[in-house]
Amino acid sequence: MDSIDDCWNQIGVWGDRSCPQLETVIHCRNCPVYATAGRNLLERDVPIEYLDEWTATIATPLDEAVKTLNFAEGDRDSATGSNTLSVILFRLGDEQFALSVGVLHEVTHPGAVHRLPHRTNDSFLGLINIRGEILMTLSLSHFLGLKTVENSSSLSRLLVVGHHDRKWVFPVDEVHRIHRVEASELKAVPVVVSQSSESYTQGIIDWQSKKVNYLDADLLFYTLERRIL
Fold first, then answer.
1. Residues 6+ positions from 83 with CB-CB distance below 8 Å
2. Within this chain, do residues 159 and 221 fall inside the same structural domain, yes or no?
3. pLDDT for 160-179, tens place per residue?
4. 59 in a domain, yes or no?
5. How many domains is the chain built from?
């Protein structure tokens, strides 16, 4: 399939807004270029590998398919009986962190964060528009009490994460990759961390000679909702 000219991400409303057509169409969704690109995506030929994969999936007995799905999502491995975790690895300042991919919605580029009078502070940075959805932007560095606090002008990525029916946006310095690790490989949290009054790290992951703090998503989002909302 031919590559798509995603001008909306370059000079459109998700880019630097330099497109001269914006004065007329107001938003890229109203532009014929955007509409044509979307139509071409929907009408493109289905890759043969995709058809083969789904043919094999449909032909698999239901009980086997459920086992395969659970393993792919990082649940219990039916073959070995071990628990496998799938996590997204990212960096804040000089420290490495991980969150379960189960709470990850997307990784995207930074955009304009709109401050709210009398509400914006070191932790709650304001509101941001992510694909037409207005979401709260939180400084995870401040919230976790890190010594190195990010500079919002130099951040490279945004993590859009969700818990139940609520989404949050975390600016981060770097997103590494999605990584899989056996639950048995999680190391205990050092005493200096575990004795902290507000510790959200439930284990340490060794990755590329780095110590990665695996965050407790349930505790993190629970505390966020109590403090911010």
1. 75, 76, 77, 182, 183, 184
2. yes
3. 998 777 899 999 999 998 89
4. no
5. 2
